[in-house]
Amino acid sequence: MKHDDTIKQITENAIANLKAALEAGDSASLTAYLAAMARFHRYSFGNVMLIFAQKPDATRVAGFHTWKKLGRSVRKGEKGLLIIAPMTIRKKADDETTDGEDKVFVRYRGVHVFDISQTDGEPLPEFERATGNPGDAADRLRAFASSRAIAVETAAHLGGADGVSTGGKIILRMGLSPAEECSVLAHELAHELLHHGEDRPACKTVRELEAEGVAFIVGQAIGLVNQSASADYIRLYKGDAEQLVASLDRIQKTAATLIASLSSTGAIATEVSG
Predict the structure, then answer these.
(1) DSSP of the chain
(2) I want to staple 111 with a disulfide (CB 3.0 to 4.6 A). Which of 59, 85, 115, 212 is the partner?
(3) Is the dihedral of CA 238, 239, 244, 250 positive or negative?
(4) pTM of the predicted model as reported, rounded to 2 decimal places
(5) Domain of 26, in residue numbers
(6) pLDDT exceeding 90 applies to what percent of the chain?
(7) What's the rounded Cα separation, in Å, for the pair 241 and 270?
């Protein structure tokens, strides 16, 4: 119960701080949080918020015993980062169970993880990361689009836009650099996944912020240098703070889906599971 109260307090404080920063016109906090989403793209929105609130510079986290298996030890006196983890409970079938099968329940509990900077020991393998060059990321995103029956085409002119999402089809402007093409494609794929269904936000500001948030996270995950461009876009299209916080979970899940399509070789993995 103590962990539950602590988790609730940390999360509420983090959200309040983010909202206050945005209301003051400062997008740096949002940019830093989206970068954390890229580093911890396998984690839920809530756990990213918890990690970021407790240690904004965290890069790779794992539990005490996981670090031991990786040849590293948590230094004495280091304070763990509290996150939420699922716990499977199996209840054996009894006479009152009509179908005679065991029942499986999932419960959540607070656990502690530690960042690599809190440990000593064997160096971890360095993951290959692009630095401004997306490699085959655009091709992988195109393949992902195809798997979702989303056509990707090009056109010489799009009325000043770099990309357009039309619901089942994305059109990219010809002449984009490889990095621009990858970022724009991620942006338009976010529109396709988020903004053509019944839960489509009515406000264009919100839709653009969600799409650019996803593109920022994907770009960060593959090493594209897009911080300033995305920060400017976020500043231009920022919605009200309440709506932004409501959108973060959608941004996180969509970015994680796209990153999964890029990381079949593990080349962009940046966290260690606990």
Answers:
(1) -HHHHHHHHHHHHHHHHHHHHHHTT--HHHHHHHHHHHHTTTS-HHHHHHHHHH-TT---EE-HHHHHHTTEEEPTTPPPEEEEEEEEEEE---TT-TT---EEEEEEEEEEEEEGGGEEESPPPPPP--SS--TTHHHHHHHHHHHTT-EEEEES--TT-SEEE-SSEEEEETT--HHHHHHHHHHHHHHHHHSSSTT--S-HHHHHHHHHHHHHHHHHHTT---HHHHHHHHHHH---HHHHHHHHHHHHHHHHHHHHHH-TTSTT------
(2) 85
(3) negative
(4) 0.75
(5) 2-63+126-262
(6) 36
(7) 29
Q: Is it the case that residue 229 has pLDDT exceeding 80?
A: no
Look up residue 188 and give its two tokens. 């338009």
Give yes or no for a contact between 183 and 226, defined as CB atoms under 8 angstroms apart.
yes
Q: Single out the residue of 189, 182, 225 nearest to residue 210, CA to CA.
A: 189
Q: 257: buried, middle or exposed (CB in 10 Å: 19+, 13-18, 0-12)?
A: middle
Mean pLDDT across the chain: 82
Angle made by CA atoms 112, 115, 120, in degrees to the nearest 5: 110
pLDDT band at 263 (very low <50, low <70, confident <90, very high): confident
Counting the structural domains of the chain, the total is 1
Cα-only R_g, the chain? 21
Q: What phi and psi, each to the nearest 5 degrees, are found at residue 122?
A: -65, 135
**Contacts of range 156-159, beta carbons closer than 8 Å, 24 or more positions apart:** none
Q: What is the pLDDT of residues 49-101, one digit of tens each?
A: 999 999 999 999 999 998 998 899 999 999 999 999 887 777 766 655 556 66
Beta strands 151-155 and 81-91, pairing class: unpaired
